[in-house]
UniProtKB/TrEMBL annotation:
UniProt GO MF annotations: metal ion binding; methylmalonyl-CoA epimerase activity
Species of origin: Mucilaginibacter hurinus
Alphabetized Pfam families for the sequence: Glyoxalase_4
The protein, known as: Methylmalonyl-CoA epimerase
VOC domain ranges (all copies): 3-131
Length: 136
């Protein structure tokens, strides 16, 4: 794993949270997009080398909606950048970690992603991210 790619924060309202984090970090939201496969709308902010991903549920069935219902708004996951997501998934699986998907899937911000179950990662939802080589 190369570095922390971003920290994901579950929010009820992306516009309200976006305004709050723009003031807090003294920067602007640079991208908003829907991730249909995860039933979320995302907004990204960058402060120096650090990125924050705000996540608003677009369906009551989404993991983010269930997270907010159970725990309230707050840190949802930590994402790590990797060079070869499939190799990292195989390594983690061999180490006994439980992966939430068998293959990398398209995620926000032009990434391929895979999630590691919090039960096998000390209670933290971990996301692996690799730049998607199939899109510009």
């Amino acid at each position: 794993m190369n570095k922390i790619e971003h920290i994901g924060i579950a929010v009820k309202d992306i516009k309200t949270a976006g305004s709050l984090y723009e003031k807090l970090l003294n920067t602007s939201v640079y991208k908003v997009e829907e991730v249909a496969s995860e039933f979320v709308k995302t907004a990204f902010l960058q402060a120096g080398p650090n990125k924050i991903e705000l996540l608003e549920a677009s369906s009551l069935d989404s993991a983010v909606s269930k997270f907010i219902e159970k725990k309230g708004e707050g840190i949802h996951h930590i994402a790590f950048e990797v060079d070869d997501i499939e190799a990292e998934m195989a390594r983690l699986k061999a180490e006994g970690f439980i992966l939430l998907n068998d293959k990398p899937k398209p995620g926000a911000d032009n990434k391929l992603v895979c999630f590691v179950h919090p039960k096998s990662a000390g209670g933290v939802l971990v996301e692996l991210c690799q730049e998607n080589p199939l899109t510009p």
